[in-house]
């Protein structure tokens, strides 16, 4: 979504502030954070080496988990969701929307490509 309109854009045309629909199987084209999500799991192995699926949640939901962990001292290593989506990773399941916050050479995958070049 850009300027309150949904558009189909190539990933190279994304800009900071675009809202992107999360769909199962999609490759994340930019860095961002989930603003609305339902059962979103990601495969971040290509970016972080982490082999477990990573649960993602909306930023407000994650803030609630963070506060609960602080109050109750809960260990929630992979149970607590993260709102952050990294470019170069993949959506395993779920749906929702995320806000694009970093694109191109400044994104996680962009920095890796620049280092390798």
Q: What are the main properties of this structure?
A:
117 residues, 5 strands
What can be said about this structure in brief?
The chain is of the alpha+beta class and 117 residues long.
Could you please describe the fold and organization of this structure?
With 117 residues, the chain is an alpha+beta fold. The protein has a single domain, classed as Distorted Sandwich (Calcium-transporting ATPase, cytoplasmic transduction domain A), CATH 2.70.150.10. The protein contains three helices and five strands, in the order ββαβαββα. Strands 1, 2, 3, 4 and 5 form a five-stranded antiparallel β-sheet that branches. It is globular. The termini are far apart. The mean pLDDT is 89.
Query: What is the H level of CATH, i.e. the homologous superfamily?
Result: Calcium-transporting ATPase, cytoplasmic transduction domain A
List the domain count as a whole number: 1
- Note poorly predicted spans: none
The shape is globular
Specify the helix fraction band: 10-25%
- In CATH's first tier, which class applies? Mainly Beta
Order of helix and strand elements from N to C terminus: EEHEHEEH
Distance between the termini: 32 Å
What structural class is derived from the secondary structure elements? alpha+beta
Mean of residue pLDDT values: 89
CATH topology call: Calcium-transporting ATPase, cytoplasmic transduction domain A
- How many distinct helices? 3
Number of strands: 5
What is Rg?
15 Å
The proportion of residues in beta strands is 25-35%
Known CATH architecture? Distorted Sandwich
Can you summarize the main beta sheet?
5 strands, antiparallel
